Amino acid sequence: MCDVRRCRPMAVIAMSAARIQFIKSTSVATG
């Protein structure tokens, strides 16, 4: 329902943030 130009960047930022948090959590758990 929302504009693509507004939703696309937000989704990309959310995905990148989730990946960074996941990598940090896994690195801390393994290290």
Question: How many E strands?
Answer: 0
Poorly predicted tracts of residues: none
Helical content (DSSP H or I, runs of 4+):
over 70%
Order of SSEs: H
Shape: rod-shaped
Q: Helical segment tally?
A: 1
Measured distance between first and last alpha carbons: 43 Å
User: How much is the average pLDDT?
Assistant: 81
**Rg computed from alpha carbons, rounded to a whole number of angstroms:** 13 Å
Main sheet: strands, sense, barrel: none
Helix-strand category: mainly alpha
Strand content: under 5%
3D structure, described in words:
- With about 30 residues, this protein is an all-alpha fold.
- The chain is built from one helix and no strands.
- The longest helix is centred in the middle third of the chain and has 27 residues, at about 5-30.
- It starts with a helix and ends with a helix.
- The mean pLDDT is about 80.
Which terms would index this structure?
single chain, mainly alpha
List the SSEs and their pairings.
Layout: H1 4-30
Short description:
By secondary structure, the chain is mainly α.
